[in-house]
Each structure stands twice: as C-alpha cells, then as structure tokens.
Amino acid sequence: MADQLRADLLSLPPDALGRVLIDHFQARGQPAYRAGQVERWIYTALAPSIEAMTDLPRAEREALAERFMLSEAEEATVAKSQDGTVKHVWRLADGELVESVLIPTEKRLTLCISSQAGCAMGCTFCATGWGGFRRQLSAGEIVAQYRASRRWAEANELGPVTNIVYMGMGEPLANRAAVHDSLTILNRGYDVGARRITVSTVGLVPGILELAERPEQFRLALSLHAPESDLRRSLIPLERRYPLPEVMEALEHFNEAGGKRITFEYTMIAGINDAPELIEPLAELARRVGAFVNLIPFNPIPYQDWHASPPARIRAFAAGLERRGVTAAVRESRGRDIDAACGQLRAHALVHIEGTRG
Ligand code: SAH
Ligand code: SF4
C-alpha cells in the first residue's frame, strides 16, 4: 500500500511533528511559520485532510501530501440510542472496522475509544473477546476516532468532548507503543487533561508498570470482575499469565508513583460473580490500592446465556462496599439498544454487510 511509505501526521507526538514539519518546509525553501499553520490545522481546526488546509498554497499542500498522510477515520455507520449515547463505526484505510461511543451526561461528554481492531484476550463475558483479534491500531488511528467524534459532536450540538476512556474494542496495554503515543498526542497536542483520560486494562502487568512511569496523571481502570484468582481465571484467561497478586503489586506501584487514581470495573453477572461472600475480598483489594469501584450490570452478548445480577443484588454489593469504607457506584448501562454498551462492541452488523457485498 502506498500509504505505508508516507508518515501519518496524526501518529506523530507533537514534538516530533513540529520537527518533521520544520525540516520539510525548510527543505522546500518555505517560511518557518508553515509548520505552525499545519499544526493549527491538525490540533485546533481538526482538518479532515491535508487538502483542507486551505491557507497553504496548493503546491505546498500537494508536496505535503506526497510525503505525509492523515489517517482519518471514515464514518461507516452512526447509531443514536434513546438515551443519547452515540455509536460510530469507523472504517480505516484498509477496510478494518472499529467503534467508538459518545456518552453524554449532564456535565460531561465522555468518548470511549478503541485501541485495537478486535481483542486477543478472550474474556468470556465480552463480545469483543469472542470476536478475536484483527490488528493493532496506530496512534493516528486512535487519535482519528477522537478527532472525528469531536467534529461529529460539534456538528450535532453535543458540545465539547470532556473525557476520554480507552474502553472500546481492544486491550490498550497490549498495544503499548501506539497507545502511549496516542496519550501524549491527546494530552499535549489536543490539550485533553491527563486526569480526564482513563486507560482500562484487564491486567497486563508490564503495561501497568510502564504507565506508572509516566509523569502525567492518566487514570487507570482495572477490569477486575472477581476478587479471587480461581473465579477470575474462569472469566479472564489472562489471569493465568498475570495472577491477581501480581496485578495488585503493579497497582501498588502505580499508586506509589503519586497523584494517580485507580478504578476497579466489576461487571456483575447473575450467579457467576455476585455472591455476597465476594464483597469482603473485593473491599479488601479496593482498600489496598484506594480504588473506586464501578459496578456494571452485565450486558447481554450473543455467546453466553448469562444475565445481569438483579438490581437488589447490585445495590447490596454497593452498600456492602460502602460499609467497608470503599466508594462504589452502580454504572447505568448506556446505549444497550444500539449495542454500544460495555462488552457489546464488535462491529458485527457491518462485518455482515461487508461480507455480503463481496
Ligand atoms: N480491554 C480493556 C478495555 C475494553 S473493555 C478492558 O477489558 O479493560 C471495557 C469494559 O467493558 C471492561 O471493564 C470490560 O470488562 C467491560 N465489559 C466487557 N464485556 C462486558 C459485558 N458483557 N457487560 C458489561 N461490561 C462488560
Ligand atoms: Fe478484550 Fe477487554 Fe473484552 Fe477482555 S474485556 S476481551 S480485554 S476488550
């Protein structure tokens, strides 16, 4: 593919982007301010293409496009839920499909983005897991979801995107280089505060340790789902490789790095991981690392005949945690009707359409 020869302007962290642009324009005998013009088009104007950078002379746009590309995500479908949640399926340059979700609440507009096409982790309660791994996303393809979602939100009067969570398709810490670059780009290029960005992981220890090394206060969510290794292993195959005690040590290390904040995600599945006896060990883990616990009613997926824990059971979990000094919230499910809720992302409808199109 020709595009492999061209560097993606969206994949470069701001420092590196500045340098290559200055070199590029210098080599062409152009004034230094051209680099600043391109940076403004990228970070402020959210230009969808090099062609759209209209204050560059045409010849300069053409020369730029010969060496560089903008890995824009093309909107394949958009679906709006009754509760206001909006799911986009984006088509990448090679036809691969990924999803992102805009979740409006009173004070925020949270964007949930994908870090991989598919996921290799195979968690038994997750639709993405059942779909298997397709490929890694580049930093630019991660950032492109943010840019395109922001443009869509602005055009549809949803206001500015205030928060970003890496909770779409894929395991972000299994795509470390691109995810780290994308964090830098979103934070320093697009000025999204580190504390407004959450990376969610199923527990890849080396990735947690690496994130701890970063000076910025990116937030971390651990998809816990069970407070004991045996039970966790039946839900999350990765537990075999990185058992809970090791994950907890990594989280302690993450905390020691200072100013960081950990959340536990706990999907509540009736009769699977919602026994009242689990409240105490869960509270113990949360207290150890000062974690906030998000209880998420299980969202139905086609591959398992499982159900969400009854609301009373979920409330009892929350109350039990609070009694033990742990802050917990029951996360309302958003976008279920459009398969945009946690664990339902899999770009399935479109894969089908693409398949029949030949
Ligand atoms: N791979 C990362 C990030 C993407 S998953 C991770 O697992 O953390 C985003 C969140 O949705 C995770 O907390 C995941 O456990 C949760 N989830 C997956 N399947 C779900 C389902 N069927 N119902 C509710 N939550 C689910
Ligand atoms: Fe992958 Fe996260 Fe789904 Fe597990 S829960 S299969 S890690 S996306």
Task: Write up this protein.
With 358 residues, the chain is an alpha/beta fold. It is 37% helix and 18% strand. Helix 7 packs parallel to helix 9. The protein is elongated. The structure holds S-adenosyl-L-homocysteine and iron/sulfur cluster. Residues 125-126, 167, 171, 200-202, 223, 265, 267, 296, 298-299, 301, 342-343 line the site of S-adenosyl-L-homocysteine (SAH).
Keywords:
358 residues, alpha/beta, DNA polymerase, domain 1, TIM Barrel, ten-stranded mixed sheet, two-stranded parallel ribbon, 37% helix, elongated, disordered C terminus, binds S-adenosyl-L-homocysteine, binds iron/sulfur cluster
What is the number of independent domains?
2
CATH superfamily of the largest domain: Aldolase class I
Shape: elongated
Q: Regions with pLDDT < 50 over 5+ consecutive residues?
A: 348-358
Q: Average pLDDT across residues?
A: 92
What helical percentage do the residues reach?
25-40%
Number of DSSP helical runs = 12
CATH class category of the largest domain = Alpha Beta
Radius of gyration: 21 Å
Total E-strand runs: 14
Name the hetero compounds present: S-adenosyl-L-homocysteine, iron/sulfur cluster
Strand-helix topology:
Elements (H helix, E strand, L loop, with lengths): L6 E2 L5 H14 L5 H11 L14 H10 E2 L4 E7 L5 E6 L5 E8 L4 E4 L3 E3 L8 H5 L1 E4 L2 H17 L7 E4 L9 H14 L7 E5 L3 H8 L6 E5 L5 H7 L8 H13 L5 E7 L10 H11 L2 E6 L13 H13 L4 E3 L17 H10 L1
Parallel strand pairs: 1-2, 6-9, 9-10, 10-11, 11-12, 12-13, 13-14
Antiparallel strand pairs: 3-4, 4-5, 5-6, 7-8
Bound molecules: S-adenosyl-L-homocysteine (SAH) and iron/sulfur cluster.
S-adenosyl-L-homocysteine (SAH) binds next to strand 10 and strand 12.
